[in-house]
């Protein structure tokens, strides 16, 4: 899956008051599904903050602080889908506020009666815990919407993507020396873009993902002529598509590690922005595969480009040329491919814990 950053809040010029809110840190906590530290940061702000920062603080705290969310907009006409989204948002909120507990069982206990009430095909079936995602997907599709083949986890949380329009296309492109001809399903008019969007108030969300039947693209995330689409979507997801065949048991963090190295081996105008984003959103202890992969990509690339103990910032990365970063990223990718191949198709992970 590729994570899309939607630049909106905090990017325009602010008023004359001092801006003190660290948006990057707030979003990093959201991407890690850990909201309590973000709430603390917001509550520690002085009273004299900018109008935009104050508006963001209110919206964020309305969503996450207190016993019940006060600010989740639900302009969904379909009653059943609206109820389903609200169930999931409550589950996401609980899970993000208390990371010491697993609320999956609580979600399941709500989904089972929901299915029995709303999906007649499930009423004469004994639905097991591990088959809830399958039946939930069937229900959503029976109502005329699109979703994934089975509702499952993104990182440590069960996700809920629902969209209304899907257009099948075919893309041909080069991935280093590999010729790719891949079906791309263009997805539009989302009702739910999942917990990433919920946690970051729409700033971050999935830009798409790869499945064995092809690639899935969130159309609103891209200019289809841009490098962002060609590299951070097509090349990233194309790597996943190939890796599903080469290493069918590889876990998500390792898949993301390889896809992010692929991006860094090809990106030009967006290269340094990618490095900065991966640096700010890496976490060696995260259960989110993106955060974990970001950490390992940056640590390994630092080892290739800088002296031991040297910590690159946005300026220091730019002392290394685009071509050199391309070469080093590709070198890491090829090394990883060789090591995985030596372990055989049953390999699950090579990322070393810190």
Helix content: 40-55%
Strand content: 5-15%
CA distance, first residue to last residue: 24 Å
Uncertain spans, ≥5 residues at pLDDT below 50? 6-18
**Beta strands, count:** 7
Compute the number of helices.
13
Class by helix and strand content?
A: alpha+beta
Strand order of the largest sheet: 1-6-7-5-4
Any idea what the shape is? Answer: globular
Which H/E pattern describes the elements? EHHHHHHEEEEHEEHHHHHH
Gyration radius, rounded: 21 Å
Mean pLDDT: 90
The biggest beta sheet is recorded as:
5 strands, mixed
Write the layout of secondary structure elements.
Elements (H helix, E strand, L loop, with lengths): L1 E4 L17 H9 L4 H8 L7 H14 L14 H19 L6 H15 L13 H11 L10 E2 L2 E2 L2 E15 L2 E16 L1 H5 L4 E8 L2 E5 L8 H20 L5 H15 L4 H10 L8 H17 L8 H4 L4 H22 L11
Parallel strand pairs: 5-7
Antiparallel strand pairs: 1-6, 2-3, 4-5, 6-7
Helix pairs in contact: 1-2, 4-5, 5-6, 8-9, 9-11, 9-13, 11-13
Q: Could you give a short description of this structure?
A:
The chain is α+β, with helices and mostly antiparallel strands and 354 residues long. 48% of the residues lie in helices and 15% in strands. The longest helix has 22 residues, at 322-343.
